[in-house]
Specification:
- Helices cover 83% and strands 0% of the residues.
- With 281 residues, it is an all-alpha fold.
- It folds into two domains: 56 residues; 209 residues, Orthogonal Bundle (MetI-like fold), CATH 1.10.3720.10.
- It is flat and about 75 Å long.
Length: 281
Amino acid sequence: MMLVALAFVLWLLGWWINTRLAEGPVAQTRVVRLAVPLIFGATILLVWELLVRGLQVPLVILPAPSLIAARFMASLPILWQDFVQTFVKGALSGYLIGCSAAFLMAVAVDRSDFLRRGLLPVGNFVAALPIVGTAPILVMWFGFDWQSKAAVVVVMVFFPVLVNTVAGLRETSAMQRDLMETYAASYWQGFFKLRLPAAMPFIFNGLKIATTLALIGAIVAEFFGSPTVGMGFRISTSVGQLALDMVWAEIVVAALAGSLFYGLVALIEKAVTFWHPSQRG
């Protein structure tokens, strides 16, 4: 029970340090903003390690972080192949296709009352469909390779980006649009100079939501059929083999890939919408 008591002490210590940093006079400095989540994450990992070892939790229930790290380092070639198959081929390609199609459709919806009133309700209906129901159908349509995973991702990211883009394009006020008309601006001049810049925060909100949906969709789609490679395939087979350390190693890869992908889109948003109050701080 010494390890359990030590875990409790470490948790209290980490909580006290983070509270002091987050509520102190230097809370808004860059160093503190980086230190707080790092300390919090390190505390969770240490407490997890101590509790698992102190309570002698079986591997099939919850492996210790040290075992997960050892499996991660020993399986780097396999994890890399799974990453390329699931993220690069399936999630990223589907993300690019789905987001591009959603943007073009949003422009068409913005110009057509019929599409706005007819397509958006259908889009909300399709977006509510469970992925476990649509993924097997798309896998049967497009085959077991990455193309079917990309198709699932397209379906998942299309409507969130579409809805956000349509809302953004309608963000400008009537007075602003009337002012552009008084300048004899054409539709496309008003679109590129007024409405598209105003819609950028909405568009990037949809793109950031789609980053997480893309990876989730690609992984879940692999549960219903894939070649002998991929994160979803590895997770499902490792669970059947009770190799929970490998499952957690794949989860770590997915978490890192998803976080970096989201961070990349957020950086692009900061560069594009530097004028927006949310980016100026």
